[in-house]
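2024-03-11 09:14:02 INFO worker-7 job=invfold-0412 stage=load source=structure_tokens
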């Protein structure tokens, strides 16, 4: 990694831009409440953490949350256990559907196959009909609606209709394999499943009828399977499924009327998202309506500067929490720009073409996408008119220093580049952009307002300008409400609070910088994160173990070209060689059973795999050896000699 230039920022907002920012307006609103003047973001952040009830109370009022706030802001202030706005009543969808006019709410492109636009009035009408249809199907408060959809306007509408009824929405993308879908939706027992009839990727028509039939056969709680047309086969597929119905027929009996909203307590479940499945089936992370709404309003309006009629784009799928984050931009009265398919189809510049045509103001993507554009030699600053673009956000993995340089050289010299980091666990960010402060090469600008972010060393004490564990030391509204099927909260506590009791430990290696920003150095656990997509090793093993020639396997994330790639090591039966045919079979099995993102970049044979004394394979130890780092706890291994088999394999994976 090139040495960082700490002398000059890459970008500095001018005074006029700072003064006109949403953040500056919020700062002025906070001053009479705090009884003091704020001269910097750091001062505002310190107040927001020290006086969290006053801060979150102001967020509610300043962002115009629709609902009954109630008198109390925060009780039982502990992690876990804190309760924000315990007397409040609100509905998430009511806060997103603030408008009902002829201006544009949603824009969609599916590569070069389909383009659509929905006005706010059309979106309201679609949500109304979906709400009535779901209610007629028996969906009510607490019921689950699961969606296996591309990033279509219907996905947003189904989510809003579900939320309007007080039901719970959960989603994945249609490229998930049968096992990946069942490992998720099978746990939450949905009443309704909404799926597409297929999807496009890189110009190819991808059929999912067989997978959908297999999935629905193993979801006994599903009473209705609604098929959204994308390839034009919705009616045919619906007819082939028990309880199947095409979207048009599902909506047929219902006419649009004003959407009604069930206002429920602040912590009422809204979304179920999923952990990566590193140690088994994914954990089902339940997020509340109020916490999700407040965090997203804060991040969009204050950190991203989103204003009414801004045009907000994020390249994401329904299998990533950034989709949930993107949808919430409606609550700031922005136009949400949707895209589905390959980011390089039909041409390498398709997303920049889209941004230019739609005059996108906020362009969100992954660090891997930025790196791929840089390597492809793209220069949008020369080939495109991106004059409307004000903010580029990057997440999924750390943004490399040379990618910071490339953005300012090749995309736009006066854009606000905000690397952001948080996760599925909080459906929001711990650290992200500050539109009033400089952007420094390789650094995330600041901790989020109201978030008591810190970096702790091995002893649990705060450290500065050295790597440690990313933590949050005080409660915040978007902590999960609970894990599904975790009645005593044991899984929830183990996930975040075992390392440092009473402190949220996120599982990232992080480092404070001299500017008060942060650098994320990747995961500190065994979760894989290639291209910003969280992948659990258990999902890979579940497929590999079905290959008769493979005895066992171990997968790691290898740092590679400013990103992480999956490397799979396999122990084979005696006399079996890892030839091209077997390698292909392993990859095909993983692709079909999990998803294309789970397919390892490299597969290598090894004679043995290190295990703990309780028989568990040790991914972290192998990852350290491959990266040339010492293994700290070899005495915990039953066969520490196996580690030597992985020495030097980092070079062999080329």
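2024-03-11 09:14:09 INFO worker-7 stage=emit residues=654
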């Amino acid at each position: 990694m090139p040495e960082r230039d700490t002398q000059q920022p890459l970008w500095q907002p001018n005074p006029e831009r700072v003064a006109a920012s949403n953040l500056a307006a919020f700062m002025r609103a906070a001053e009479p409440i705090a009884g003091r003047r704020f001269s910097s973001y750091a001062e505002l952040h310190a107040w927001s953490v020290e006086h969290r009830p006053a801060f979150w109370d102001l967020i509610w009022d300043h962002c115009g949350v629709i609902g009954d706030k109630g008198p109390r802001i925060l009780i039982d202030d502990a992690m876990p256990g804190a309760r924000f706005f315990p007397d409040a009543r609100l509905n998430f969808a009511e806060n997103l559907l603030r408008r009902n006019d002829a201006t544009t709410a949603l824009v969609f492109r599916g590569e070069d196959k389909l383009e659509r636009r929905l006005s706010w009035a059309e979106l309201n009408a679609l949500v109304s009909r979906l709400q009535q249809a779901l209610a007629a199907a028996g969906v009510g408060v607490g019921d689950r609606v699961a969606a296996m959809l591309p990033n279509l306007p219907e996905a947003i509408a189904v989510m809003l209709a579900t939320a309007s009824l007080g039901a719970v929405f959960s989603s994945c993308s249609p490229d998930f394999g049968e096992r990946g879908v069942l490992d998720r939706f099978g746990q939450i027992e949905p009443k309704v499943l909404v799926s597409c009839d297929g999807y496009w990727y890189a110009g190819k028509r991808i059929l999912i009828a067989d997978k959908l039939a297999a999935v629905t056969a193993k979801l006994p709680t599903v009473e209705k399977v609604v098929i959204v047309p994308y390839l034009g086969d919705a009616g045919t597929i619906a007819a082939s499924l028990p309880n199947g119905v095409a979207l048009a027929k599902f909506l047929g009996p219902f006419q649009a009327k004003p959407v009604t909203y069930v206002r429920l307590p602040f912590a009422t479940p809204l979304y179920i998202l999923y952990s990566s499945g590193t140690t088994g089936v994914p954990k089902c992370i339940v997020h509340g309506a109020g916490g999700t709404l407040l965090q997203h309003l804060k991040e969009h309006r204050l950190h991203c500067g989103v204003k009414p009629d801004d045009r907000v784009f994020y390249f994401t799928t329904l299998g990533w929490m950034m989709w949930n984050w993107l949808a919430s931009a409606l609550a700031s009265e922005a136009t949400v720009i949707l895209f589905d398919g390959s980011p390089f189809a039909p041409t390498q510049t398709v997303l920049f073409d889209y941004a230019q045509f739609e005059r996108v103001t906020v362009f969100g993507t992954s660090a891997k996408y930025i790196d791929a554009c840089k390597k492809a030699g793209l220069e949008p600053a020369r080939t495109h008119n991106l004059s409307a673009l004000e903010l580029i956000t990057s997440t999924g993995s750390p943004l490399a220093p040379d990618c910071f340089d490339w953005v300012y050289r090749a995309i736009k010299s006066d854009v606000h580049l905000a690397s952001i980091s948080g996760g599925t666990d909080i459906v929001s960010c711990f650290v992200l952009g500050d539109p009033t402060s400089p952007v420094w090469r390789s650094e995330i600008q600041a901790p989020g307002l109201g978030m008591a972010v810190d970096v702790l060393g091995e002893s649990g004490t705060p450290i500065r300008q050295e790597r440690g564990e990313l933590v949050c030391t005080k409660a915040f509204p978007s902590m999960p409400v609970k894990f599904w099927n975790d009645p005593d909260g044991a899984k929830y506590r183990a996930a975040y609070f075992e390392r440092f009791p009473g402190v949220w430990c996120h599982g990232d290696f992080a480092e404070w910088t001299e500017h008060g920003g942060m650098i994320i150095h990747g995961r500190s656990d065994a979760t894989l994160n290639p291209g910003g997509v969280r992948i659990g090793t258990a999902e890979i093993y579940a497929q590999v173990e079905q290959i008769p020639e493979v005895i066992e396997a171990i997968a790691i994330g290898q740092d590679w070209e400013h990103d992480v790639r999956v490397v799979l090591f396999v122990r084979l039966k005696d006399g079996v060689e890892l030839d091209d045919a077997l390698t292909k079979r392993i990859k095909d099995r993983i692709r079909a059973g999990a998803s294309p993102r789970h397919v390892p970049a490299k597969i290598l044979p090894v004679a043995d795999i290190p295990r703990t004394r309780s028989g568990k394979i040790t991914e972290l130890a192998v990852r350290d050896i491959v990266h040339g780092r010492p293994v700290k706890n070899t005495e915990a291994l039953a066969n520490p000699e196996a580690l030597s088999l992985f020495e030097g394999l980092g070079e062999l994976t080329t």
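2024-03-11 09:14:09 INFO worker-7 stage=report msg="Confidence is low (pLDDT under 50) at residues 1-5."
2024-03-11 09:14:10 INFO worker-7 job finished
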